[in-house]
């Protein structure tokens, strides 16, 4: 006699076959037209580099959700990005955005700091908040099974922070201590003076962490006012990458952020459309004497380009040829051939506003004037002499070869999705990027160099033992003690 469960399976199969046979011989039942499926809330594009798709949806309150499903392992990375970085700091109070971000995990209306840390730890995931120039970001990574819990904590930090006064005082002291420490390091000193000289009171004129003077002016009310004004759903982007479907991601975001209403005041100011219309700075050198250093740190450059400028890709190739890689002209001539520097590189800080083009190097102090002169010559050559077909082809191939490594982990994908949305690069980025790189020609590289490199307008900051460099103030130079 067959076991009971086998008998049940056999009877079920027999009944299914009988019904199937009856259906084949019965007259068709009249029916109306098949209803059209509901429209998808998602805009979708291919992501060929990882054989997936990217999905984007916008909530009724303006919050944007972007997802790339990648069910390789049961882990999800997410980012909550708010366009409320240091570029939105109140005048004279640089560091407000940074301090606000540092207080998000210090207590909410339903959780104190200790409870937040304990609950984050219980999920086995990690959760961090930080502010940059353009954006404040809450970053998380967790097993799929604990995503709802960790994302709920992250959303609570964003929606219901209470900014306790004791925690504010503690973080303010930490910020001041960090800024005091930076004064003894050449890199931050050079970078902060460089940006301040180029941009003054503009959105990138002060470091994200502020300065000792600006941080000393910040009050707890400044933090609360900044939060109320700048943290809004229509400035918020949520991205997911990993073991999650677009539908689940959207449902999760709606469940916690769907009722978030924008404040009645304040609106996001658009990035300037023509940063290049501002006059170029005068040629100047800033000397910062640090006799305790053996080496000199130098940062030199001019205003650059916005990330969504159509010329960005030609500028990218141009910079890679000039100083963006270990095989670049700057590295080959200054470091490898002449042995004058410990390192040297160039770059574009291309963000929502036009960040700078810069060259950075560190050298034995007496070599400083020679390296500056050699770097200026290489800049002039790049600006005036055509690049070769081979240089452009090799550089394009190198850039394209590196592209897959930008999307090889869920963390990198989640961050890249946030970057794409925040900088208005479009969902087609994953196909546009390689296509735009392939379209770069020697002529377009030369045009980028001609428009963006200005050797006669360089702002140069030198930090180190100035007397040992042999450099002397000429009446035009600025000396900082």
How would you sum up this structure, described in words?
- The chain is of the alpha+beta class and 481 residues long.
- It folds into 2 domains: 43-257, Cytochrome Bc1 Complex, Chain A, domain 1; 275-480, Metalloenzyme, LuxS/M16 peptidase-like (Cytochrome Bc1 Complex, Chain A, domain 1).
- The chain has 17 helices and 13 strands.
- It has helices at 4-25, 96-102, 113-123, 147-159, 165-182, 186-199, 212-216, 220-230, 246-257, 312-324, 329-337, 368-384, 389-402, 410-422, 429-438, 442-452, 466-469, and strands spanning 43-47, 52-58, 64-69, 75-82, 126-131, 136-143, 236-242, 284-289, 295-303, 343-348, 356-364, 459-464, 478-480.
- A 7-stranded mixed β-sheet has the order 1-2-3-7-4-6-5, sandwiched between helices.
- β1 (43-47) and β2 (52-58) form a beta hairpin.
- Mean pLDDT is 90; it is low at 1-29 and 270-276.
By CATH, the architecture of the largest domain is named 2-Layer Sandwich
Average of pLDDT: 90
Strand content: 15-25%
Give, in spatial order, the strands making up the sheet with the most strands. 1-2-3-7-4-6-5
Largest sheet: 7 strands, mixed
Name given to the CATH homologous superfamily of the largest domain = Metalloenzyme, LuxS/M16 peptidase-like
The CATH class assignment of the largest domain is: Alpha Beta
Q: Give the helix level as a range of percent.
A: 40-55%
Instruction: Output the number of helix runs.
Output: 17
Q: What structural category do the secondary elements indicate?
A: alpha+beta
Number of domains: 2
């Amino acid at each position: 006699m067959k076991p009971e469960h086998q008998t049940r399976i056999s009877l079920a199969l027999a009944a299914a076959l009988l019904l199937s046979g009856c259906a084949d011989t019965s007259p068709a039942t009249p029916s109306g037209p098949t209803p059209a499926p509901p429209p998808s809330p998602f805009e979708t594009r291919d992501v060929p580099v990882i054989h997936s798709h990217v999905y984007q949806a916008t909530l009724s309150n303006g919050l944007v959700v972007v997802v790339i499903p990648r069910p390789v392992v049961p882990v999800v990375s997410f980012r909550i990005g708010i366009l409320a970085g240091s570029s939105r700091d109140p005048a004279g109070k640089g560091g407000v955005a940074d301090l606000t971000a540092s207080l998000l995990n210090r207590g909410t209306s339903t959780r104190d700091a200790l409870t937040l840390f304990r609950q984050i730890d219980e999920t086995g995931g990690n959760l961090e908040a930080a502010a940059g120039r353009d954006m404040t970001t809450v970053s998380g990574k967790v097993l799929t099974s604990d995503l709802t819990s960790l994302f709920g904590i992250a959303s609570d930090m964003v929606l219901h922070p209470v900014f306790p006064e004791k925690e504010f005082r503690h973080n303010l002291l930490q910020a001041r201590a960090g800024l005091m420490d930076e004064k003894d390091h050449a890199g931050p000193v050079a970078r902060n003076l460089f940006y301040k000289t180029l941009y003054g009171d503009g959105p990138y004129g002060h470091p994200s962490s502020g300065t000792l003077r600006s941080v000393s002016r910040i009050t707890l009310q400044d933090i609360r006012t900044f939060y109320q004004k700048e943290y809004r759903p229509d400035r918020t982007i949520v991205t997911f990458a990993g073991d999650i479907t677009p539908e689940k991601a959207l449902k999760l975001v709606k469940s916690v952020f769907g009722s978030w209403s924008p404040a009645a005041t304040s609106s996001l100011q658009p990035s300037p459309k023509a940063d290049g219309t501002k006059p170029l700075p005068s040629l100047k050198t800033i000397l910062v004497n640090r006799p305790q250093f053996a080496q000199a740190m130098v940062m030199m450059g001019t205003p650059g380009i916005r990330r969504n400028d159509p010329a960005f890709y030609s500028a990218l190739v141009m910079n890679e040829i000039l100083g963006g890689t270990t095989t670049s002209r700057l590295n080959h001539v200054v470091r490898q051939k002449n042995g004058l520097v410990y390192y040297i590189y160039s770059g574009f800080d291309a963000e929502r506003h036009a960040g700078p083009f810069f060259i950075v190097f560190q050298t034995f102090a007496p070599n400083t004037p020679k390296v500056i002169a050699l770097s200026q010559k290489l800049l002039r050559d790049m600006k005036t002499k055509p690049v070769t077909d081979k240089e452009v082809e090799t550089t394009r191939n190198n850039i394209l070869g590196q592209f897959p490594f930008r999307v090889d982990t869920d963390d990198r994908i989640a961050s890249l999705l946030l970057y794409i949305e925040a900088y208005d690069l479009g969902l087609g980025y994953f196909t546009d990027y390689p296509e735009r790189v392939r379209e770069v020609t020697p002529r377009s590289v030369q045009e980028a160099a001609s428009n963006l490199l200005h050797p006669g307008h360089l702002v140069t900051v030198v930090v180190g033992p100035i007397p040992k460099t042999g450099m002397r103030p000429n009446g035009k130079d600025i000396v900082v003690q």
